[in-house]
């Protein structure tokens, strides 16, 4: 949360609503920092772990395969990733950590041009020369060369869309259409013409406000680094706090952080769900934590006459006497839980719409149909492509899996054989929204459209596409829409919660974390648990 939280009294009772990564990690950190506190975590589904779902099934021959039906990799350069990896090491799971080298094929990324050709994002002179001859590069050089001299916003205190910020900085809308829209499809499943620049492009937003230009800001930062002292703690404020609170060896944490920065992405043996499973196992072993599943919280109750918070469950049961309540679900679900008498709060929570992403997994055994020249992490689709199938991007899971190497050099984990194809196709997001309504394609229709797209983009034959295993997953309302003015909205909602519930309710999850990634909500959980310690 942006706002401060109250320190919990001794022997408090805390309720946590939501058993995804956000709820699990907040519970883990708070339970470790305050063993005197009794924590009850409520999850409405049969399983915890949230959107992370490493699904185990079998191929046509009965051999086990794992399909990621949610997030699958982590950024190496991230405080949250350092926390995650240290927690895994604490629970003897370092052998599960896998990494991708910066020069690996799996670190190559592609974009789909307006003519349905895949072009590599430059990482060498050869790929750079190919890129500049592609329509996607139009407007790039003039946009970059003139950025230094372009005027900043005439309303420096006001938020704006990512598109308006980038169009102004680069002097054209081509960079947004051809490049940035694809990146935002991959991260937010959303549209740069409606997303908050202050929330989702903060570095550029504040660099322009402070220096007048992103290039001027970069130059100033370079000068400061050049002339600044090299001494000082290399750990960030977050990691220093973690080191202090959990009595970590600073040298070990520094080494871990530096090692992780070498790798653009990391994964886990058995899939990313290994993380919440490890945390869940740890929580199950903590005497001060209780986890209740398959019984959603429907209402929260609080009156000024009572010093504690209560919850009502879908089966009608009520549980009272909580000194603090942590909500980690989406804002629209929070809206249904709070009292209808708090009209302004309910209205504010309902302002945040959420995008739905359809994930389609494809597995073809004994055959690699990804062209060698396209081996990489995958590709994203910008708004400049006609894109009738509404594809946001495609992840080449089999390439990633075959390029993973153990983070722990002592690990005996074997690399997989490369005679198979595994893809994840992301469909929809904001592209499913029209005239204020969301239309989710049926399974057969969606898979048929995805086959058309893969045949056209990657030249995979119809025969191979028909021979594979297909799995369809709807991640309904999984990404909050960060509209213009989102930071102001967040501060207002947080304050109203703190005022209405006398500081006894705090907010987490993607709607209130710094960003939508797994590392973001992990850091959010740690920092808020620390505030309440």
TrEMBL record:
Its cofactor is FAD. The gene is NCAS0E02050. The keyword rRNA processing does not apply. Catalyzes the 6-electron oxidation of protoporphyrinogen-IX to form protoporphyrin-IX. The keyword Nucleotide-binding does not apply. PANTHER family: PROTOPORPHYRINOGEN OXIDASE. It catalyses: protoporphyrinogen IX + 3 O2 = protoporphyrin IX + 3 H2O2. Belongs to the protoporphyrinogen/coproporphyrinogen oxidase family. Protoporphyrinogen oxidase subfamily. GO terms for molecular function: oxygen-dependent protoporphyrinogen oxidase activity. It is found in: Mitochondrion inner membrane. Gene3D superfamilies: FAD/NAD(P)-binding domain. Coiled coil: none annotated. GO terms for biological process: protoporphyrinogen IX biosynthetic process. GO terms for cellular component: mitochondrial inner membrane. It holds the Pfam family Amino_oxidase. It comes from the Eukaryota. Its main location: mitochondrion. It comes from Naumovozyma castellii (Yeast). Its EC number is 1.3.3.4. This is Protoporphyrinogen oxidase. SUPFAM superfamilies: FAD-linked reductases, C-terminal domain (SSF54373), FAD/NAD(P)-binding domain (SSF51905).
């Amino acid at each position: 949360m942006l706002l401060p939280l109250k320190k919990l009294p001794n022997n408090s009772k805390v309720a946590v609503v939501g058993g995804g990564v956000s709820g699990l990690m907040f519970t883990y950190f708070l339970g470790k920092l305050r063993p005197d506190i009794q924590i009850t975590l409520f999850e409405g589904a049969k399983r915890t772990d949230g959107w992370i779902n490493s699904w185990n099934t079998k191929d046509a021959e009965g051999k086990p395969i794992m399909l990621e039906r949610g997030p699958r990799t982590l950024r190496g350069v991230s405080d949250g990733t350092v926390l995650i990896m240290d927690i895994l090491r604490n629970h003897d799971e370092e052998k599960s950590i896998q990494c991708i080298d910066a020069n690996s094929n799996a670190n190559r990324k592609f974009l789909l041009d307006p003519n349905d050709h895949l072009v590599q994002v430059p990482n060498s002179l050869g790929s750079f020369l190919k890129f500049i001859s592609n329509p996607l590069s139009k407007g790039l050089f003039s946009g970059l060369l003139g950025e230094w001299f372009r005027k900043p916003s005439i309303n420096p205190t006001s938020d704006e869309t990512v598109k308006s910020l980038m169009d102004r900085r680069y002097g054209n809308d081509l960079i947004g259409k051809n490049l940035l829209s694809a990146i935002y499809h991959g991260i937010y499943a959303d549209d740069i013409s409606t997303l908050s620049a202050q929330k989702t492009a903060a570095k550029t937003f504040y660099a322009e406000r402070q220096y007048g230009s992103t290039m001027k800001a970069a130059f100033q930062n370079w000068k400061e680094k050049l002339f600044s002292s090299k001494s000082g703690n290399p750990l960030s404020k977050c990691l220093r706090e973690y080191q202090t609170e959990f009595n970590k060896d600073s040298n070990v944490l520094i080494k871990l952080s530096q090692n992780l920065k070498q790798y653009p992405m990391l994964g886990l043996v058995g899939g990313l769900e290994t993380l919440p499973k490890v945390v869940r196992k740890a929580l199950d072993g903590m005497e001060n934590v209780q986890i209740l599943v398959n019984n959603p919280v429907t209402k929260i109750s609080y009156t000024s006459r009572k010093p504690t918070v209560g919850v009502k469950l879908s089966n009608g049961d009520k549980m009272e006497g909580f000194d603090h309540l942590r909500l980690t679900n989406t804002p629209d679900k929070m809206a249904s839980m709070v009292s209808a008498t708090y009209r302004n709060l309910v209205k504010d929570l309902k302002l945040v719409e959420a995008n739905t992403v359809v994930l389609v997994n494809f597995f073809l055994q004994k055959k690699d149909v990804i062209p060698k020249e396209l081996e990489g992490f995958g590709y994203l689709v910008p708004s400049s492509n006609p894109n009738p199938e509404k594809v946001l991007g495609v992840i080449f899971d089999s390439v990633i899996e075959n390029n993973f190497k153990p983070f722990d050099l002592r690990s005996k984990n074997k690399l997989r054989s490369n005679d198979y194809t595994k893809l994840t196709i992301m469909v929809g997001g904001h592209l499913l929204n029209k005239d204020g309504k969301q239309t989710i394609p049926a399974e057969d229709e969606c898979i048929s459209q995805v086959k058309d797209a893969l045949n056209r983009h990657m030249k995979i034959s119809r025969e191979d596409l028909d021979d594979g295993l297909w799995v369809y997953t709807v991640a309904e309302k999984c990404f909050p829409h960060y509209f213009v003015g989102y930071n102001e909205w967040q501060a207002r909602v947080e304050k109203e919660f703190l005022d209405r519930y006398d500081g006894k309710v705090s907010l987490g999850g993607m709607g209130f974390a710094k960003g939508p990634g797994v590392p973001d909500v992990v850091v959010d959980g740690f920092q808020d648990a620390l505030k309440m310690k």
